[in-house]
Amino acid sequence: MRFHIMTLFPDIFTSYMGESIMKRAIEKGIVELYTYNIRDFSLNKHKKVDDYPFGGGAGMVMTPQPVYDTYRYIVEKFKIENPQVIYLTPKGRVFEQKIAGELSLAEDVILLCGHYEGIDQRIIDLIVTDEVSIGDYVLTGGELPALIMVDAISRLIPGVLGHEESYEDESFTGDLLEYPHYTRPREFEGLEVPEVLLSGNHKNIAGWRQDESVKLTRQRRLDLYEKYEKQVNASKSNKKRKNK
Ligand code: ADE
Q: For the chain, what are the domain ranges?
């Protein structure tokens, strides 16, 4: 899968993508990451990429020409047929695991990082196919949100994580938060590992983990818990119907 990042600060991506799992995913050729400095595409003699907003107001707005030309360059170079262009903005729909899952199936994803007060609306009208926010707070630019998306999407691509099963149990996959984990030693600062995890009884361990997940979700995220309860009830009534 290829990520194309349109940004004014391409260096931000180098460090994060050069470590750990993301580094390995790139080395294995499963993930490709290309960054494009929007400033390089500016036709202005001073390589300017922003200007005052029409109508007045505080802050600067990114001008459309450099962004549009960066986009054209990517699409032509990689011959992308139906480009999926995501603009990172607090105005977008909120990013969640389901969106990461959908995007992990794409061949090319173009992420557009804004800065200053935002981007000329005509860019959004012309090339953006989806606007995404990573949460209800305002950052100084779209680079951190883009990295978060790249990370969350990449780890769902087969082969990126070491063990295929390591994302099956985790938080959100089944609308529940993940159960607690323990490793050695058996006792630490007076706190013991729950007995059941030492029992070797896989059925009991799975049951304990499920119960812990449900308990934690109900305590912390009633919204997710209610979704989960609905699913459980729906599958129960489905089973009943089949047995009739
Ligand atoms: N740019 C600035 N804040 C943002 C946010 N919360 N999500 C996505 N892009 C942003």
A: 2-154, 169-243
